[in-house]
Amino acid sequence: MVGTKWSAVPWGMALTLVTAVTAVAAPAAAHGRAPDRARPSQRVVLMNADTGPRTVKLGDEVEVRLTGHREHGLTYSWSIPVSSDSTVLPGTAGSETPSGNASAVFPAEHRGTATITAQQHCRADPGHFCSHRIEQWTATVEVK
What we know:
Distance between the termini: 73 Å
Order of helices and strands: HEEEEEEEEEE
Helix content: 10-25%
Radius of gyration: 30 Å
Oligomer: single chain
């Protein structure tokens, strides 16, 4: 019978490599979950009809786009939306247009709840008159 000689060095190196790979992968497997991956932020857009409560995740952005309108020599314009809690949803950008539109962006920076509001008011052309009615737009946003 012819004997075969096997060197122990390659097997020992392979065993060391397998042990090292297992030790690195073990912490994630021990917790029963995959390693955390950064979730891309989402932009949630709220418009005139979106007045109900919304839930967003930390790091998301809430963009408010309100559309004004014009009729019979009157322009119904929105004010720039504002947040009730600048810690939870600080406003970073806001604008109004001559046509009555308004917008603002609110990054979700801390967990909590904030209310975003804007007011619609009337501007009259010469010879026309507005009522003193002011409409309020409100949306409650919870950041989780």
